[in-house]
Every structure is written in structure tokens, then in C-alpha cells.
Amino acid sequence: MAEQPWGQPYPVRPQQPYGQPWQPAHTPQSTMRASHTDRDRTVDVLKAAYAEGRLSREEYGQRFDAVHKAQTYGQLAQLVADLPAGPMVAPFGAAVPVLPPAFGPVPMPLPMPVPPRPVNGMAIASLALGVLSLPTLGAAGLGAVITGHIAKAQIRARGDEGGAPATIGLVLGWLSLGGWVLLFVLAAFGALD
Predict the structure, then answer these.
(1) Could you tell me which residues come within 8 angstroms of residue 162 by beta carbon, excluding any fewer than 6 positions away?
(2) In the chain, how many H helices and how many E strands?
(3) Quick one: 146 exposed, middle or buried, by C-beta within 10 A (0-12, 13-18, 19+)?
(4) Is residue 114 part of a domain?
(5) Over the stretch 111-168, which tens digit does the pLDDT of each residue have?
(6) pLDDT tens digits, residue range 2-28?
(7) Rounded Cα distance, 33 and 50, in Å
(8) Pair 138, 180 in one domain
(9) What pLDDT does residue 117 have?
(10) Is 176 within 8 Å of 133 (Cβ atoms)?
(11) What are phi and psi of 72, to 5 degrees?
(12) Residue 44 covered by a domain
């Protein structure tokens, strides 16, 4: 029975230092099997080189076909070793040098600031009149109700801010008016007795 090639011990080769990660070298990583994602990254390098005019159409087609037939990282690295972008076919966990960008970071446009919506003046008036009407149960309650309803209509029409102050002014105004009605009712029944 013949021995299987994968049953033999792995030959240990001395690690050779190499200057660039895309230059082929005889390391254990170069014999590691490549995945579909690794092939896609290599195809991206070939596409960029073809778009930049570094490869002819025929050479691009030959290398493209060879990428899909490649089985290891070393085979993929040989297909793009003469291209400046180099392959992005480093196995998971291998050190990949991080080069600083040539011209600095690319500035990203900032979103346009959205101006704040104005607060409706009638809503503030309604809140103020509603607060003033509580301690004295004065006529300010009627003003709070009127300005509160005007503010609500303006907020719906214009899209202003101030819905909460208008609502609080309306509630306080109606409480004040309810207190006045209660006083008149009690006074009327007290006079009849």
C-alpha cells in the first residue's frame, strides 16, 4: 500500500525574511490552502492593476483564470507579486504591515448642521399665564387657555417647538377656569340657602 502524501511529516524549511508581504517566499503560510475569499481579494488586485493599465487584457485573463485554479497562498502571491498593490492573501493571524496613507487621511465631509426649530412665543405665553393664574385663580387662566390654543395651531402649521409648554399652559388655564366656575357655583348655592 502506497503512503499518502499527507501522512508524511511536514518538511520544515528555514524561515526566509522577505521585504514585502506580497513577495512569494517559501514559508509555511505559502503552502497553506487558500479560501474563496482569498481568491476574491487577489482578483480585486488584478482588477485594479488592469484598470491602471499595468496588465494587458490577455494577461489579465490568464491571471484571472489562474487565480481560480490556485490552491495555496503561495500560488496566489505569485500571480500578483509584480504588482504594486500586492495580494491581500495573508492567512488569518499573520502579521500584515500597516502603511500610513501617502497624503494623510481622507477628509470626510461633515453633515450640514440642522438649525434648531424656534420655540413658539404663544406657547411660552400660555405657560406663563397658566402659572400666574394658579395662586390667585385670576383671569390669567382665560389668557392661558386662549394663547395655548393659538400656540397649538401655530405649532401644527409651522412645525415650531413648544408643544409641551403650550399643553401645560392649557391644563393650568383650564384648572384656573374650573376653579372660578366652582367658586361661582358655590357662591350661587350659598346665596340661595
Answers:
(1) 119, 120, 122, 123, 124, 151, 155
(2) 6, 0
(3) middle
(4) no
(5) 778 888 888 999 999 999 988 887 766 678 888 999 999 999 999 998 889 999 999 9
(6) 554 444 454 444 444 444 444 444 555
(7) 26
(8) yes
(9) 85
(10) yes
(11) -125, 165
(12) yes
